[in-house]
Amino acid sequence: MQQVAGIHDTCLSIFERAKRENVTTAEIADKIALERLENVRNEKARLALAS
Fold first, then answer.
1. CB 3.0-4.6 Å disulfide test: which of 6, 23, 33, 51 passes with 27?
2. Prediction pTM value
3. Which residues, including other chains, have CB under 8 Å from residue 32's CB and lie 6 or more apart?
4. CA gyration radius, the chain
5. Per-residue exposure over 11-49, b if at least 16 CB sit within 10 Å of its own CB, e if not
6. pLDDT given at position 4
7. pLDDT tens across 29-43, in order?
8. What is the 8-class DSSP label of residue 22?
9. What does the alpha-carbon distance between residue 25 and residue 19 come to, in Å, rounded to a whole number?
């Protein structure tokens, strides 16, 4: 249920960022997905270096 509640906040964030960056919401959603993937890659690389 908590994840469902977060959808509203996520949508608002996308709308606000799209307006601020003057791009479509689809472009922002794609950017967010790419940013999340990059964060995972960076974390995996950091963990690999730490071990």
1. 23
2. 0.77
3. 14
4. 14
5. eeebeebbeeeeeeeeebeeeeeeeeeeeeeeeeeeeee
6. 84
7. 999 999 999 999 999
8. T
9. 8
